[in-house]
């Protein structure tokens, strides 16, 4: 089989299978909580359920429908078997992991945290279908027009939420959510990654949560987000100086919680980290804005290739193992190498575009047609 024929065959196979087997490296889930120094390991998707205070989701793909019940706690999320004991004012480290075990793969979009009382004070049976959520934390850009807090998740750091000191005692679901905006320039492109954890909060106040806030502070999922919300449909998200301030979807943080809540990114973690840094790609760097051809700051792309022995003929496709490991993997690598060699010829002229391409390459496991088209478009 000629190299051209093999390439065309691989490309056709990949285009078809990309819709059936999307890359898990581009998505993720909450793998661990650290509460007051104690670790709570989360169950991995695709595996048998395990004892945890974090609700297991069926897969790491995002929730796309704003009318889906999965918007509450994630795809096919089920109640967990354990409850984490916390106090009002506790700090909760939330560790996000990519689907293949690396760092969180996205950089653009807000992080938000809600809480809701569990029905009948029993979080292990509450499905979250009728939960009344109250926002206690939100984080967008570090500075107007600057990097997002999500970028720190991409760098391997956990996000820390501080429970309001005035949060009433009781059984709670904590809904922590990433809203990824990297494809939110068009309607329906936004991606939702909600995760629910089960908490037993002790504190001085005993008033039910719903009675401690106004009706305007209460959210429902689905129900509280609209596809055209300015914080969800963001055509200007990549424009220089774009400011997300005031665009957070959903209700505001109640005044009684806003002074005591608040999240942040922590540089160091407590306990044993379950995430591993992604390999760095040599080359690159941010342009200082001067077209002086200074190699120290002019952005550039370094293409790293690898060699794999491609079978001389196709192995019979008699089961999924043969299809995936003996046919698809060589095809994927051959196709990616060919596309990269033919497309990555021009220098990246903007640091934002440079980072996006390196991010796409470093997380590329099985390329899908959308990702390859976007890659080619950026280098035309």
UniProtKB/TrEMBL annotation:
Q: Which InterPro entries match?
A: AA9, AA9_LPMO
Where is the signal peptide, in residue numbers? 1-26
Q: What is this protein called?
A: lytic cellulose monooxygenase (C4-dehydrogenating)
Name the UniProt key words of this record, in alphabetical order.
Carbohydrate metabolism, Cellulose degradation, Copper, Disulfide bond, Metal-binding, Monooxygenase, Oxidoreductase, Polysaccharide degradation, Signal
What family is it from?
Belongs to the polysaccharide monooxygenase AA9 family.
Reactions performed catalytically: [(1->4)-beta-D-glucosyl]n+m + reduced acceptor + O2 = 4-dehydro-beta-D-glucosyl-[(1->4)-beta-D-glucosyl]n-1 + [(1->4)-beta-D-glucosyl]m + acceptor + H2O
UniProt GO molecular function: metal ion binding; monooxygenase activity
Q: Which PANTHER family would you find in this protein's record?
A: ENDOGLUCANASE IV, PUTATIVE (AFU_ORTHOLOGUE AFUA_1G12560)-RELATED
> EC number(s) for this protein?
1.14.99.56
Biased composition of type Low complexity is found at 266-276
- What domain of life does the UniProt record list for this protein's source? Eukaryota
Q: Where is the Auxiliary Activity family 9 catalytic domain?
A: 27-239
Quote the CDD domains the UniProt record gives.
LPMO_AA9
Q: Which residues cross the membrane?
A: none
* Cofactor(s), by name: Cu(2+)
Q: Name one GO biological process term.
A: cellulose catabolic process
The keyword Calcium appears for this protein: no
State whether keyword Hydrolase applies. no
Region (Disordered) residue ranges read 264-297
- Coiled-coil residue spans: none
């Amino acid at each position: 089989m000629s190299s051209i024929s093999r390439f065309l065959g691989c490309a056709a196979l990949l285009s078809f299978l990309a819709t059936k087997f999307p890359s898990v490296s581009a998505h993720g889930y909450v793998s661990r909580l650290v509460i007051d120094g104690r670790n709570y390991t989360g169950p991995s998707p695709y595996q048998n359920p395990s004892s945890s205070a974090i609700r297991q989701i069926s897969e790491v793909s995002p929730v796309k429908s704003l009318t889906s019940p999965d918007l509450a706690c994630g795809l096919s999320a089920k109640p967990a078997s354990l409850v984490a004991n916390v106090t009002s004012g506790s700090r909760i480290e939330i560790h996000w992991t990519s689907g293949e075990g690396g760092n969180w793969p996205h950089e653009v979009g807000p992080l938000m945290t809600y809480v809701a009382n569990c029905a009948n004070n029993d979080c292990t049976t509450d499905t979250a279908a009728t939960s009344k959520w109250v926002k206690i934390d939100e984080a967008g850009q570090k500075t107007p027009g600057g990097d997002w807090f999500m970028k720190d998740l991409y760098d391997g750091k956990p996000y820390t939420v501080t429970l309001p000191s005035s949060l009433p005692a009781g059984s709670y679901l904590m809904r922590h959510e990433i809203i990824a905006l990297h494809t939110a320039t068009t309607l329906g492109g936004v991606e939702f990654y909600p995760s629910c954890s089960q908490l037993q909060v002790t504190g001085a106040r005993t008033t039910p949560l719903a009675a401690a806030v106004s009706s305007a502070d209460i959210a429902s999922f689905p129900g509280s987000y609209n596809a055209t919300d300015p914080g969800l449909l963001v055509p200007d998200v990549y424009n220089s100086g774009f400011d997300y301030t005031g665009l957070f979807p959903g209700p505001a943080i109640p005044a009684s919680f806003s002074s005591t809540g608040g999240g942040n990114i922590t540089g160091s973690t407590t306990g044993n980290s379950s995430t591993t840094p992604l390999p760095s790609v040599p080359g690159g760097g941010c342009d200082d804005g001067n077209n002086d051809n200074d190699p120290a700051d002019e952005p550039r792309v370094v293409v790293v290739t690898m060699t794999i022995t491609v079978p001389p003929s196709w192995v019979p496709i008699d089961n999924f193992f043969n299809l995936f490991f003996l046919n698809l993997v060589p095809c994927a690598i051959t196709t990616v190498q060919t596309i990269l060699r033919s497309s990555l010829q021009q220098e990246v002229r903007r640091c934002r575009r440079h980072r996006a391409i390196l991010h796409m390459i470093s997380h590329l496991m099985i390329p899908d047609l959308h990702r390859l088209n976007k890659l080619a478009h950026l280098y035309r």
